[in-house]
Amino acid sequence: MANGQWPMVIMSLITSLQPYLSPEALSAVCDSILQFKQQNRSHVKVFSTDTLSVLISHLNWETMCNKLLSKELSKQYKECHYLILPDVEQDLLVVLMSTASLDERQLDPDDFKSHFLDAEHHIICPIWVDESRTDPCRIHLQCANVSHYTLFPNLLEIISNNEIHAEKIRILQAIETGSKNVTCCFDVDITLKMPLADEPFKSIADDFRRYLQNRLKAMSIFDLVGPAMVGPSSSHTAGASRIGLYSRHIIEAVIASGEKVDSLKVVMYASFRDTGVAHKTPHALGGGLSGFATDDAELLAHGDPDYLNEHGFEIGGQHIAFEGYKKGSLEEEKKFAQQTGNNIAEIIFQTDKGSHAIAGFSVGGGNIEIRYYDGWLKSPINGKSDMRLVNGRLETCSDANEQYPTIEKIFNDEAIAAPAKLPFNSFEEMLRYANEKDKDLIDLIVETEMTLQDTNREKIYSKMASYWHVMERAVEQGLKSKTLSLFKLSGKNASKLNSYVHENMLFDNLFGRSIAYAVAVNEINAKSGLIVACPTAGSCGILPGVLKAYEEARKPSERSICEAMMVAGFFGMLLFDDVSTAGADYGCQAEVGAASAMAAAALTYLEGGDIDQTVEAFTIAIKNVLGLICDPVAGLVEVPCVKRNGMYATQAISAAMMALSGVKSFISPDEVMLTMKEVGQRLHVDYKETGRAGLAKTRDGKKVENAFAGEIKKFFG
Ligand code: SF4
Predict the structure, then answer these.
(1) 479-511: per-residue pLDDT in tens?
(2) Cβ(683) to ligand 1 under 6 A?
(3) Which candidate, 144, 440, 464, 479, has a CA 20 to 30 Å from the CA of 450?
(4) How many domains does the chain have?
(5) Which is it for the CA torsion 216, 220, 226, 227, positive or negative?
(6) Quick one: 250 and 194 in the same domain?
(7) What is the CA(581)–ligand 1 centre distance, in A?
(8) What is the CATH number of the domain that holds 360?
(9) Shared-domain flag, residues 373 and 236
C-alpha cells in the first residue's frame, strides 16, 4: 500500500470500528496501526492478506488485549470476540476485537460442547464442522481444537481459493471445554456480498474441514528424529513404504471380509511420479505392500518390478498378481487437486466383487496419511499407529494407549479418540509456558511427548538411544566405505574428508569432523543403507555429524546426547506443526535447513545454553537457510544433497556459537518460522523436487538424467 493511502485506510478503519469500540479503544487501534507503520512495515501492506500470518503472531489474544483494552480486561481475553473485515479488492484486512458480543447470536457453551464430547466413552470427535445455513448470503462454520493462529490463515486461504467476496467474517471464540483434548471452539460466520449456491458452499465446508484436519495430527519428537529407515528419501522411500504397508493391512481387511483379490497395480502422482524412481519409491511401495518395514534390509528388493512380476503378492493367504507401477496422468491427478501434498500413490486392486482404490499421501519425514479408500476419508489414517488384524477386523493401535478404534469406524467417520494437543502453538507461547510453569527444557519436552503420545519417560529415552546407535553406525560405515553409488554421484568423499581432517591440525576440530561425519551418513543414505531421518533422509547427516563430532570432543553421557536429540526433535516439531518437512512441498530449506537448525539447538543444549539461547540458535539457523531450493540431479538424493549436509553441519555449529555467546536474532522466532512458510509457499514448483530446474537442469545434471532414463522405463514401460 502506497504511503499516501495511509490516512484513507485509517479513516476507513475508524469508520468500520466506531460502532464497536469505545473512543479510548478506538484511539488505541489507531496508535497500534501507526506503530506498525513506524516499524517500517508499510511496504508490506499492513493488514493485507499476504502478511496475515505475520500479523497474527503479533495480534494474538493477549497482545491485542494489551494493546487495545485495559490491563484488567486483558485478563479476560478468552471471553473476547473477533471481527474481521476483509476487503478483497484492496487486499485489506481489519482485525477488531471487543469484549461485547458482535452478533445477536450467542453460543450456548453446553450445546456447543456436546458436539465434540462423548461423555460416556470419554472420546471426542476431533473436528466437527457445522455446515447448516438458512441464509444464502451467510456461511456458518463451527470447529474445535484449532488455535486462532491456525484458523485465520486457513480461513483466508479458503476464501481466496474459492474466490468468495466476503463482506465480514465474525469469529467468536467463547468456549473453554475444560477437557485436555478440546482446547477451544470457534464459531465462524461469514457474510457474503452475493448469495452462494449450495454446491460451492459444500465445497467450502469440505475445504475448511480438510484444512483443519491437517492440523490435528498429534506430533511427536520422533516425527522429526526418526524413523530408522533404509534410504534414500524419507518422503519418497520411508513414506512410500508406509503407504504400501498400510494399504496391505487394508487389503487384508477386505480379504477377511470375504472378498477374493485378483490383481493389484500402483499408480504414482505428482512428485512420486516425477522423481520417485530415483528415490526408489516404487521399490518402497512394493516392499511395503509385501509387508516389509521402513528399516528392513529386504524392503527394496521385494519391491523390484521384476521380482513382483514373477512372484506377485501374498496377502491374507491369497496370491495377488502384480499389474505394474503406472504413471498417473495430470488429468487423473486432478481428483487430488484439493489436497495439500505433492507425494501421492494410489493402490488399485481388483476383487471378485469389483475394484477398490486406496490413496496415500507422504507428508514429509516418513509420515503419511491415507486419505482415500473408495472415496475421500473424513478422518484420514495418519500412519502413526500400528495396524493389525484382530478376529477378522482391522484395528489401529498406538503403541502406548492400547486403544483400538476399528478401521470400519475410521472409514465411517465415527468419533475417534482425538490426539492431545500441544499446550502452545509457537516458540513465543512455548517460552511463556516454560516460564510460567517454571519448567526446564528437557522436562517440558518429555512431559509434552508423554502427553501427546501417551507414553512414558523410559520409552522415550530408550527409543532415542536406539536411534543414536543407528546414527553412530551410519557414521562409522560411511567413513569406511570406499564404494560409489549406483550412478557414481556420491561415495568415498567421507573417507577422503576424514583422512584430511585427521591429518590437518587446522581442520581437526568440531567443524572439520562434523563435515566429514555428516557426509558419511548421507553417503550411506544415498546407497540405501540404514539411517535415521532427521528430519528427512536427504538431511539425515547433519544431526549425527554434529553430535558425533561433539561426542568425540566433549565425551558427554549417552543420556545427554539423547536429550539433545529430543531438543532437536521438539524444536523441529514446533516448526513443522505448520509446514511439511518435504522438499517437495517447501524446498530444501525445510529439509537441510531444518536439520541445521535442529542440530544448532541440540548443540546449544549440550553446551549448557539456556532455553532462550537454544531457541535463538534454532532461529538464527533458520534465517540463514530461507529460500534454499530442492533441485536434486536426476531426482537422486545425492547432488547437491550429500555435500550440502556437510556444509550445513557447520552452519549449525556457527548458529549455536552465536547464540551461546549472547548474539540474538533481530527477528522474533515465530516470525522467522512464518517467513520460512511464506518463502516455501512462494517457491516455484520447479524448485520443489521435480527435477525440472536448478542443478538438475544443468548440462552435467542432464547427462545423469539421460543415463537414468533407462532405469525409469523399467518401471513404467
Ligand atoms: S536438495 Fe535438499 S530437499 Fe531436495 S532431495 Fe536433496 S536434501 Fe532433500
Answers:
(1) 999 888 877 888 899 999 999 999 999 999 999
(2) no
(3) 144
(4) 3
(5) negative
(6) no
(7) 11
(8) 3.30.1330.90
(9) yes
